[in-house]
Amino acid sequence: MELVIDKNDLQNLLKKAISATEKKSALPILSNFLLEAKDDKLTVQGTDLEVHVSVSVFAKIENEGTACVNAKKLTDISRLLPSNEVYIKLEDSTLKIKSGKTKYNLPVAPSEDFPQMYPFPEDNAFLISGDNLQKAIGKTAYASSKEESRYALQGVLFRSLNGNIDVVATDGHRLALYTIERTGKGDINIIVPQKALNELKKLLTGLEDVEVAATDQYAFFRTKEWILMTRLLEGVFPDYTQVIPSEFSREIKIDKKEFLESIKRVSAVIEGDTKPIKLTLKPEILELKSVSVEYGEAVDELSVDYEGEEYSIGFNAKYLIEAVEVIDGDEVVIKFTNPNAQTLIIPADQEDRYKAIVMPMEIS
To answer: 37: domain CATH number?
Structure first.
């Protein structure tokens, strides 16, 4: 293996693959990168056996070949190289790196010991936009469960429905849904783990098209520059379509920024993650109130277009904030059913495909 590569290209390549590697593993090979020089490209692979990332960039290939080298050490070295042109050569059992007058000789592991990525399942693939995938992850992952006992809910569901892909997360107290348009006929109903979604966020620019496919155990996301393969989470994901109400007793439209600032002001008197806040609708007014035995109470009022009967409902302020923060537009629509049932939060823009459900909280 022998090649010449631009320093910035090398740095970006290693940066995208490094977090997929396993730093403290019973299998030492997982702390390495697999480098492959072939077809005018340098491809770098990293894996922890749960998530497997392969990233490629243009390089001037003198001799094709592979090398397996410590991922952290190579990444650290790439940041310190003095010259824009980097020369890399595998000689015997040593990876030689030269940049300007600086030279490194790094030991290598057997390339054949590095875990192989499975072939991309072409037969059931479909295409989505990277921008939509970025939005889907950013607008749903917050609602996934942090409890280890709720294994399936720790991930995010990707499910084919009505010609689109629904991306859904829930922890049982709230739910977030974003619908993606797709091209192609492949169907999926899979739960993708958080680590894979975090890696996808690092890889995505929002400008690319992404091919998506799945087998019984793995999901694949592929572009021209990279492939991500992830092991799927097992378990049963609840039927989210049953959770989203179709009928409502009342609704309001409210300025997103004003609403968020008001929630934060009022919940400031409450300590801890669970921040009970009471919303009361009155003619022309939305009242927000929090009470703390230790720190007193806070009340705020916002102007709203509402003419119905007085209506009160309690929430965890944190859940409201997280549901509203990811909305892109300036206005939010809140649709209420009854004080003991779920509330729907959506953007005022009807073209937006985001929905959030927040369950109420009993407040005395």
So the answer is: 3.10.150.10
Under the phi-then-psi rule, with left for phi > 0, alpha for psi from -120 to 50, and beta for the rest, what region is 317?
alpha
The model's pLDDT over 29-40, given as tens digits with 9 standing for 90+, comes to: 999 999 999 999
> 364 in a domain, yes or no?
no
Q: Which domain holds residue 303?
A: 250-358
11 belongs to a structural domain: yes
The pTM of the whole model exceeds 0.70: yes
Is 361 in a helix, a strand, or coil?
Answer: coil
Residue 148: the pLDDT is 77
Which tokens hold the place of 59? Answer: 């390089």
Cβ atoms of 69 and 214 within 8 Å: the answer is no
Split into its structural domains, the chain has a count of 3
Average pLDDT over residues 221-247: 95
Is the backbone of residue 32 left (phi > 0), alpha (psi -120 to 50) or beta?
A: beta
> What confidence score (pLDDT) does residue 25 get?
73
What does DSSP assign to residue 52?
A: E
User: Which DSSP letter does residue 149 get?
Assistant: T
Q: Looking at the structure, do residues 84 and 136 belong to the same domain, yes or no?
A: no
Other residues' Cβ atoms within 10 Å of the Cβ of residue 84: 12
Specify the DSSP element, H or E, that contains 285.
strand 285-292
| CA distance readout (Å), 97 to 38, 57, 85, 147, 322 | 18, 17, 11, 45, 46
CA distance 267 to 258: 14
Asked if pLDDT for residue 316 goes beyond 90, the answer is yes
